[in-house]
Amino acid sequence: MTTTGHGRPVAPRPATGAAGRAVPLRNGGDETRRTGRAGLLRAKIELAMPEFRAVSGWLWNGPSVAELYPDYLCVLHSMVRSTVPLMEAALARSRDLAAEGDPVADMLVPYWTQHIREETGHDEWLRQDLAAIGRDPDEPLRRLPTATPATLVGAQYYWLFHYHPVCLLGHIAVIEGNPPSREVADLLSERSGLPLAGFRTLARHATLDIKHGNDLFRLVDTLPLTPVQETAIGLSALHTMDSVVQLFRELADGFGPGARSTVPPAPVPAA
């Protein structure tokens, strides 16, 4: 799950945590996998990171963490609750294509099957976090999602049904390939004054997403992809990155005059 960035934060304000430290935005993953298709996919995602780092840095290193965090959980829920249904659709489509002799789809079937089990219930974790900080856990279900998460998720449905379910790997590479630092939950709890029990989703994904990200990148390296399929995965990843940045910008807009203007835009490169 991509939650708080990848690499050193670039924030327009002093980036100090509760103990005078910047909130670390990224956890370690399998840094050795920098070659092959997985390495190229990582490189494409990294090219799109500057703006994401900037807006993440503003959110977590600014003064409004306690006020912002409940809205962040609701925004994150709008993404996370789509994950399992997306993979279920990808699994069904992969099975259909595998029956027609598609070798890539055939290799995707066991991946989707396993990962659906691994991701089931993560949207409930977010509702539990809301309850732990004294908020209504049904709040994200009552909110009307903006067009941004609809665009983020809707593009994946289009690609998996009308091109190939392998595209969804690019989306997952962004969501799970850049786990939060293990320190983020503790530091944000200290800074906000909110109970640590309300940050369990971040804490869990700091560990889980290292394995999930590495599993995905290893799969990308082993699939018999065509050049166009490889490009499609990169396109999907960059679309997701762009949409996540937009979601975080919308969140920043609610905190302080001109919040969005303090986060300079950066171009998203082509796939």
Can you walk me through this structure?
By secondary structure, the protein is mainly alpha-helical. The protein has a domain of 189 residues: Heme Oxygenase, Chain A, CATH 1.20.910.10. It is 64% helix and 0% strand. The longest helix has 27 residues. 46% of the residues are buried. The N terminus and C terminus are likely disordered.
CATH classification, class level of the domain at 65-253: Mainly Alpha
Strand content: under 5%
Runs in which pLDDT lies below 50 for 5 or more consecutive residues are 2-20, 27-33, 257-271
Derived structural class: mainly alpha
Largest sheet, strands/sense/barrel: none
- The dominant shape is globular
* Element pattern in H and E: HHHHHHHHHHHH
What's the CATH H-level homologous superfamily of the domain at 65-253? Answer: Heme oxygenase-like
Provide the CATH topology of the domain at 65-253.
Heme Oxygenase, Chain A
Average of pLDDT: 83
Indicate the CATH architecture of the domain at 65-253: Up-down Bundle
The total strand number stands at 0
Q: Count up the helices.
A: 12
The level of helicity is 55-70%
Q: Quote the distance from N terminus to C terminus.
A: 21 Å
Backbone CA Rg: 18 Å
Topology overview:
Layout: H1 36-47, H2 49-61, H3 65-80, H4 83-99, H5 103-119, H6 122-132, H7 139-142, H8 147-162, H9 168-176, H10 184-192, H11 200-222, H12 227-253
Identify the notable features of this structure and list them briefly.
Heme Oxygenase, Chain A; mainly alpha; 64% helix; 271 residues; disordered C terminus; disordered N terminus
What's a concise summary of this model?
By secondary structure, the chain is mostly helical. The protein has a domain at 65-253: Heme oxygenase-like (Heme Oxygenase, Chain A, Up-down Bundle). The chain has helices at 36-47, 49-61, 65-80, 83-99, 103-119, 122-132, 139-142, 147-162, 168-176, 184-192, 200-222, 227-253.
